[in-house]
Amino acid sequence: AAAAPEAAQGAAPPAADRSEVRFTISEDAVLDWAKNATPYTFSVGNQMLKIDLTLSEPRELKLLDSRATLKIRLRANGIPVDQILQPVLTLRHDDANARYYVVVSSLPVQLPGFGTIDLKDSFPKFEIPELIEDLWKFGDRPVALNLDIRRIAVLEHALMIGADVNFVPASPSGTRGTR
Questions:
Q1: DSSP string, 128-160
Q2: What average pLDDT does the segment 170-176 reach?
Q3: CA distance linking residue 128 with residue 121, whole number of Å
Q4: What pLDDT, on a 0 to 100 scale, did the predictor assign at position 17?
Q5: What pLDDT is stored for residue 14 in this prediction?
Q6: Which pairs count as long-range contacts for 104-108, CB under 8 Å and 24+ apart, including other chains?
Q7: What pLDDT is attached to residue 128?
Q8: Which of 49, 65, 84, 111 suits 155 as a labelling partner, its CA being 20 to 30 A distant?
Q9: Strand pairing report for 99-106 and 88-94
Q10: In a 3-state reduction of DSSP, which class is residue 3?
Q11: How far is CA 110 from CA 51, 57, 113, 124, in A?
Q12: Which of 174, 149, 109 is CA-nearest to residue 20?
């Protein structure tokens, strides 16, 4: 049965509907990101004994069960350390803040004179941006494509990401990867 014209006109407008996109990122793509993010230098120790360590040459990345493992080279300035490590990185979701983080959950290192030390606490948790933003210019009007990340899961050999998608007017000096 067809609705009466009066009923159709009185209907509330549909709620704003955001499109959702789901995509996967392969281990190779994540490894490419890691290669571009290295070398990465960080310091461990205190004022009396501070050592600068550099991570480089990541390879053999494996994604499985909310974790990532890889091989990565570690070198130190001032002490004879040059070794291949196998850190474990874990994906964590903070429900209270609705944010995803990557946490170094294991990074054992052999340091001469000290034995094996797990440097997992030497790293902050790395926040995955909640909003990924990119700009396009159409004439003199920049438009942003925003991916508002809702879900991230580590699958076997890939990351699966679910995000709401929206297009909005943007300022020409827009930011990328932040809200």
A1: EPSEEEEEEEETTEEEEEEEEEEEEEEETTEEE
A2: 56
A3: 19
A4: 59
A5: 45
A6: 105/67
A7: 87
A8: 84
A9: antiparallel
A10: coil
A11: 13, 18, 9, 21
A12: 149
